Amino acid sequence: MRTLRLKLQFYKSTLLINLLVSLSILFLTKSVSAFIFSLTVIGFLAAIFYKEVYRKNEYYLYYNAGLSKLQLVLFCFLINCVWSFFIKILCMI
């Protein structure tokens, strides 16, 4: 339970940058497909890059709790894939 809470905390810390980048792409391209791709890949990579450069020391909190960087990144990626899937389903309705 504690690890899930920490993973969600990490996800929330990447969400703002991911959404800003993804929404910017949505407004520039006016394409939902581009938004979904950005949410899953481009915005996500921008958020991870930001964490790597400016917030590198935050990883120690997760490492001390037994979570690796790979586990955190994969969890966030999977959550973004689920969100993208739901957005795609909603657009088809």
Summed up:
This protein has 93 residues and is mainly α. It contains 4 helices and no strands.
Structure description:
By secondary structure, the chain is mainly α. The chain has one domain (2-92). The protein has four helices and no strands. Helix 1 (2-29) crosses helix 2 and helix 1 (2-29) packs across helix 4 (69-92). It starts with a helix and ends with a helix.
Give the CA-based shape: globular
Quickly count the domains.
1
* Largest sheet properties: none
Number of helices: 4
Mean pLDDT: 93
Rg (C-alpha, Å)? 14 Å
How far from one another are the termini? 35 Å
| Share in helix | over 70%
Low-confidence stretches: none
What is the chain-wise order of helices and strands? Answer: HHHH
Strand percentage: under 5%
Task: State the total count of DSSP E strands.
Answer: 0
Category from helices, strands and their pairing: mainly alpha
Keywords:
mainly alpha; 93 residues
Fold topology:
Blueprint: H1 2-29, H2 32-54, H3 59-64, H4 69-92
